[in-house]
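User: My instructor asked us to take a sequence, write out its structure as tokens, and then describe one feature of it. I'm not sure where to start. Here is the sequence I was given:
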Amino acid sequence: MIRSALVLALAPALLFAQGNFDTVTVKATVLRGGVYVLTGAGGNMGLSVGSDAAFLVDDQFAPLTPKILAAVRGVTSQPVRFVVNTHWHGDHSGGNENLGKAGALLVAHDNVRKRMSTDQFMELFKTTTKASPPGALPVVTFNDSVTFHLNGDDVVAYHVAAAHTDGDVIVHFAKADVIHMGDTFMTISYPLVDIGSGGNINGFASAADRALGVCTERTIVIPGHGSVTNCAELKTWRDMIVTIRDRVRADMERGRTLDQLKAAGLTKEFDERWGKSFIKPEQMVEQVYRSLGGK
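Assistant: Let's start with the prediction itself. The structure tokens for your sequence are:
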């Protein structure tokens, strides 16, 4: 068995090897204003439905496309016309080629297309992801933001400072008051900072601040991984990251080594909640250390 949902999501080679896609169920759960969250194996997907089209945020792994489309058909007769990728990782963009062939327009930040166009090395897994085929590449890319006016809503996808990767995008369903954070926010683990993809711990605080700036008491927040939640929980996540970052920075300025930082218990009050899943406390400290320029 793979040991956690996040490992399942971020280790596609293991998933393929074990043939676990056959056992995956893709489920659509209604949130508000024609917006749903879809869960399966990989990053949480967002879905807007209405009289215009089905609009999908992320698309998990390629073998799951039939199940994803079946889940969409369960709530609307409209075809998937748009797919927005929150970043390049395969558990969020693996279905691109299939959905593009089915008629969806693939949209992402400029850096997502750049990353997907070339081989990428992920330090955490010591693995190389081969360049995606041309049909999987985003057809429309943007630098700052793009707005979709459909299904009676204004859906704004906007780039944030490099956090999980350098192509991170948050999607705000403005009228429904739902925010999809991609992997700039997870409720089940400390953050994964993909340093090789330009990620940086500072960006997680910036992404949270950007989302919190449009939050209301009613806002529903879809994390990249974990349960749907609210802005209060996003604020708690943001404050945890800032606290750990500032502690690591202060100790780095005192001349402490990475090994000393890992042994200093800088994350201890947060470990019960976030440190028992995918990213362990010592990995969290090292990610912060590397983000702050430690070698």
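For the description part of your assignment, you could build on this observation: The longest helix spans residues 231-253. Try explaining in your own words what that tells you about the chain.
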